[in-house]
Amino acid sequence: MSDTKAFDVEVADLIRLAGPCAQREGVVIADASGEIVYACEQAIAILGIVRIGAGVDDYSVMHGIFTEEGRPYPSSDLPLARAILYRKTTRDERMLLRRPDGMIHLMGVSARPLFDDARKQVGAAAFVRILAR
């Protein structure tokens, strides 16, 4: 199997493990190393841009994520990063998103680690939705 085909199968498995999104919710998926490998169309519409290939240290800066008070959100504290680094599930964490087009949204983000059938962590999924514009 070619490297590209193997990668596509791995991403498809991560999407399957993440499961369906709620209505008006987007999903961003990272592999076990923390590299973003997938974002659904709704996630891209919400976030404005998703940098495929971004690593844990880049999440906040590359995607314009801030605390509700407007301070830069440390990348390692974001729900997706905590799911990757610490296997932590987070529900409905609030944060500000400053999109590249200048729009600012209050978002709710939930994230959880993804495990294969052998209970090995293979990635993590973050589910994002707009709470207020």
State the major sheet.
6 strands, antiparallel
Which class of secondary structure composition applies to the elements?
A: alpha+beta
Low-pLDDT segments, ≥5 res? 1-7
- From the spread of the alpha carbons, the general shape counts as globular
- Taking the alpha carbons of the first and last residues, their distance comes to 45 Å
Beta strand count: 6
Question: If you average the pLDDT, what whole number results?
Answer: 87
Q: Estimate the strand proportion.
A: 25-35%
Order of helices and strands: HEEHHEHEEE
Rg (C-alpha, Å): 14 Å
Strand order of the largest sheet: 2-1-6-5-4-3
Q: What's the helix count?
A: 4
| Proportion in helices | 25-40%
Key terms:
133 residues, alpha+beta, 6-stranded antiparallel sheet, 4 helices, 27% helix, globular, disordered N terminus
Description:
- This protein is of the alpha+beta class.
- The protein is 27% helix and 34% strand.
- The chain has 4 helices and 6 strands.
- It has a 6-stranded antiparallel β-sheet, with helices on both faces.
- A hairpin with a 5-residue loop joins strand 4 and strand 5.
- The longest helix has 16 residues.
- The N and C termini lie far apart (45 Å).
